[in-house]
């Protein structure tokens, strides 16, 4: 048995069978993987099919997710639904939505929702009725001339749902807070989270911290592959936001950030890491070192004011991958869905990494 108790940028200090070890932060190291209790489960990989962009929810003891499927990165022909009843170790999948026919099949939700319950996946809503389900997709939310694409996982706050969106305003891109007062069936503009002239803010994670504040971590484009991220906070329920602060990109960067608040009130920040050497080579072997592409994770125990060093939970081929989304399972572990390519941009897969958040130090 091995347990971590402190970390530095490139290593973790751990105790294994009474012996103190310095463990390098690399997926090739068996002790590193054991510290995290790391397991990776393949959900869907098919030849010449682009599976990507997952979302995930926990309903009771079950995990339910959806992800895009189709011919290419921006050429989806539908959405798949996936369900796990054992904490993410095994999955069943079924096509949830077909772009051509506009047909829905949410039957993997059977037995999980009560009549009147609503669940939101990406830009879709599913409501349980007496006779079955009603499903809908939601487009953009407008505020003046700006149209915001829905993004991120909705959170409950003061009896309503909040989520983020982003849109183009002139030559800039800005991030907004959106709200729903009907459980996710409709969305409206609430406030502007981040807009600075000459900058491009887009995909944003959102979480309510233990102190009641709202924290948002936002992708900022325009810096080549470094993929800067910024953070901002609201202490008035999302009415106003602090000026965005850029993370030190040497330690925290990525795309498609995601935030989750754990049962002990700590926060995990996850992102697709597209900086460094390819995390996988042509035959799927992890490259050595810490500066590789993959899925990165950081932890905060002070409401997002400070963060641990980067902990990588999976590697990816080249830079095609990301969009981590996670839940905490019944046993306290984290189940994280994401997508990444293996040996070519034409065949990304959706996977689930299961790990112990106590290993993030």
From TrEMBL:
The reaction(s) catalysed by this protein are:
Hydrolysis of alpha-(2->3)-, alpha-(2->6)-, alpha-(2->8)- glycosidic linkages of terminal sialic acid residues in oligosaccharides, glycoproteins, glycolipids, colominic acid and synthetic substrates
What Gene3D superfamilies does its record include?
2.120.10.10
Q: What is its EC number?
A: 3.2.1.18
Give the GO biological process terms. ganglioside catabolic process; oligosaccharide catabolic process
Q: Which CDD domains match?
A: Sialidase_non-viral
Listed GO MF terms: exo-alpha-sialidase activity
Name of the protein:
exo-alpha-sialidase
